[in-house]
Amino acid sequence: MSYFVGWKYGVLVGGFVGTILLATYPIIISPMINPDKWKRIQEDTRKNIKQEDIQPGNMKVWTDPFDRKKSTDEAK
Fold it and tell me: Which regions span the lipid bilayer (predicted)?
């Protein structure tokens, strides 16, 4: 029984890493580098949708949860 030793082991590990990187490039890396294409696709598919009409449970549309209301008593 022969084990992968030396350069053969390096080729095996490099092949696995290369395959994973090759598979993740169009899914993860490409949209991060050039998001304009994906923004255009979203604009085209969502142009006739009003978010207020499809919001479940009559909930309001997303707002920033960390946006604090300014109080008039800040000087005290």
Answer: 6-29
- The position carrying tokens 């604090």 is 68
Are 12 and 4 in contact by the 8 Å Cβ rule? The answer is yes
pLDDT tens digits, residue range 7-51? 989 999 999 999 999 999 999 999 999 999 989 999 999 898 887
Position 2: which residue type? S
- The token pair at 3 is 């084990």
Give the confidence band of 69 by pLDDT, cuts at 50, 70, 90.
Answer: confident
Helices in the chain by DSSP H: which ranges? Answer: 7-24, 30-33, 36-46, 51-54
Residue 31 CB partners (closer than 8 Å, separation 6+): 37, 38
Q: Quick check: 61 and 55 in contact, CB under 8 A?
A: yes
Please tell me the predicted confidence (pLDDT) of residue 1. 55
